Amino acid sequence: MKWIDALHETGVHPRRTRVLAEAASAFLPRNARVLDVGCGDGLFALTLSKLRPDLRIEGAEAFPRAACRIPVVAFDGSHLPFPSGSFEACLLIDVLHHADEPAALLAEASRVGSGRVIIKDHLREGIAAGACLRFMDVVGNRRHGVALPFRYFNSDEWEQMFTKCNLGAVSRNPVGNLYPFPANLVFGRGLNFVALLQAKPAAA
Questions:
Q1: pTM greater than 0.90 (yes/no)
Q2: Cβ distance 69 to 42 under 8 Å?
Q3: Does residue 57 have a pLDDT over 90?
Q4: Residue ranges of the domains in the chain?
Q5: With pLDDT > 90 as the criterion, what percentage of the chain qualifies?
Q6: CB 108 within 8 A of CB 82
Q7: Residue 167 in 3-state DSSP?
Q8: d(CA 69, CA 82)
Q9: Which of 70, 74, 117, 128 has its CA 20 to 30 A from that of 55?
């Protein structure tokens, strides 16, 4: 597996990070303070900050890495140690399918992110989707000690989670071209999406 890990780090991770940073950039307001929940090594946040130098990005991580590229605070994976509305937006980039309680973490992101959450995650739909997603998870996360519950959601399950958290999808789009050819033919076929979620107004 070492050669696969090396290929992922040099040929997949940087490209995937750049594509996702470009997608997320369009959803963030100017001069925003942003929290990247589950920031990992901080490469995504660093790449995004180079695209958008007006942003102030901080990280929260259940398993902080010594070489993280951005300022990061540890959290327990469920409760974010910030007052409500501390940020203008929260990022959850391939995080929720690892969480013990994904809806609870999404609600926390909404709470501290002023009701604006950008998520990128997987969609369990199509032929052999579950098997492909499990392989992707193992290659991308096993060596970092990230929890791998192999729990992925379909469109209806995502919508139910959004509704439970009182969030509506302002925009939700598939993300393609994440991987180099020919890997994109297998792993980029509608298995990934990015969405801008916004808290719904309170009922009168």
A1: no
A2: yes
A3: yes
A4: 2-199
A5: 65
A6: no
A7: strand
A8: 21
A9: 74
